[in-house]
Specification:
The chain is 45% helix and 9% strand. With 408 residues, it is an alpha+beta fold. The strands form 3 sheets. It has a 5-stranded mixed beta sheet with strand order 1-2-8-5-3. A 3-stranded antiparallel beta sheet has the order 4-10-9.
Length: 408
């Protein structure tokens, strides 16, 4: 395929709006050379089959060592100043498999399903706090604290530390958008110190949590360095809540926009598993999957990716590929092909926490629709705003009104 002119004037928010993005790109061809809003050159993949091919191609690696030298300055988490980037998300085989195997047993479907009662209890506690008021911001009161509580309990983060954790994690999820390089480095140092202290406490006093389990595995088989242990703990903490926050908030907004779909879901809980996948597809929590680098020449869809180039998967656009999804702009909670969405990525970096996120989504949507009767937006849609990021699609607030629950 002949090289097209590089597209340089893409805004941060357009990556979450597939039809607008494709219109701006000027064609539905599945690969494009662009400049990201932070200035980093990239090959953007918008087609679903092509994205799957790229994510499964071992020649596209996460190591910054494979990137062209001029790209290094755009990758803050690869800096030696950032201590906690030595985790499985930025690792390639064989290190990736070694680290992933260590923590994967905590996220099996059986273990995740065993957490259902506790997740339901946290959900009910959060809704109890707002049910009588008849109004709430469902981001700050519900979508954000629910997954933070769940993943913090899994890792053994004390309740009193979660506010500080959330504040610093917000910096990391603003990478390439709302967070400066210095702020990212500072947040990384805070987490390095905090997790180092938590690991020391768990070595002295093991608990029934994931950090204690990683320490035990490390001591038995020496499969994680101390830095890898802290890095993977941070990955689980941050990745374990961010996509789920967005799934819940974006999904609730989609249901508010489609009252017939919300009514059908409220009437039939059996629709929940399929509905979660469709909501993940319809308004993806992740707009782009960044930081894949071509170790050698790669051809995908007739498009040549040169050695050292940065490859970005436009997950939201791939989730609206009409070659895969019939009428992709239509919300259909019974869509049979929703499982082809790429909101959890694909290949060896497929999201380890996907079963947990799906379960939290099922419980969140089912419980909100059951308990908050008459749920409607409290502001015009035009007043809703999203966190500035071309990687994540996060609502800032979701103000709603509903029928107040009677206090007993």
């Amino acid at each position: 395929m002949p090289a097209a002119a590089r597209i340089t004037d893409l805004t941060t928010d357009i990556f979450a709006r597939p039809e607008e993005l494709l219109a701006k790109l000027g064609s539905r061809q599945p690969l494009h050379r662009i400049t990201l809003p932070d200035g980093m050159p990239a090959v953007l993949i918008t087609g679903n089959p092509e994205a799957r091919e790229a994510l499964a191609d071992g020649r596209l690696v996460r190591s910054i060592d494979a990137a062209a030298p001029e790209l290094h300055k755009y990758h803050p988490l690869a800096s030696d100043d950032y201590a906690l980037s030595r985790h499985m998300l930025f690792a390639d085989p064989p290190d990736h498999g070694r680290m992933r195997k260590l923590v994967s047993t905590a996220f099996t479907r059986r273990r995740v399903e065993a957490m259902r009662p506790r997740i339901q209890a946290i959900t009910d506690e959060l809704l109890d706090a707002v049910a009588a008021a008849g109004t709430a911001d469902l981001v700050t009161a519900f979508a954000l604290p629910l997954p933070i509580a769940v993943i913090s309990e899994m890792l053994g983060v004390p309740f009193e530390d979660r506010t500080d954790f959330e504040r610093h994690a917000e910096v990391l999820t603003g990478i390439n958008a709302s967070s400066s390089f210095d702020a990212i480095v500072e947040a990384g140092r805070w987490f390095d110190g905090y997790l180092g202290d938590l690991v020391r406490r768990r070595r002295a006093d093991p608990r029934d949590d994931l950090i204690s389990a990683m320490i035990a595995a490390q001591e038995q088989g020496d499969r994680l360095t101390d830095l890898e242990l802290r890095s993977n703990a941070l990955l689980l903490l941050s990745a374990g809540f961010e996509t789920t926050v967005n799934l819940i908030a974006n999904g609730l907004l989609a249901l508010l926009r489609h009252p017939d779909a919300a009514a059908a879901l409220a009437a039939d809980a059996a629709l929940l598993p399929a509905a979660v996948d469709e909501l993940l597809r319809y308004d993806s929590p992740v707009s782009c999957v960044t930081y894949h680098f071509a170790r050698e020449r790669v051809e995908i869809g007739g498009f040549e990716i040169r050695p050292g180039e940065h490859v970005v998967i436009a997950a939201a656009a791939a989730n609206h590929d009409p070659r895969v999804f019939d009428e992709p702009s239509r919300l259909d909670l019974t869509r049979p092909d929703a499982g082809q969405m790429l909101s959890f990525s694909h290949g060896i970096h497929y999201c380890l926490g996907a079963p947990l996120a799906r379960l939290e989504g099922e419980i969140a949507f089912g419980t909100v629709l059951r308990r908050l009767a008459g749920l409607t937006l409290a502001v015009p849609e035009s007043e809703l705003t999203w966190k500035p990021s071309f990687v994540l699609h996060r609502l800032e607030r979701l103000p709603v009104t509903f029928t107040p629950a009677r206090q007993s």
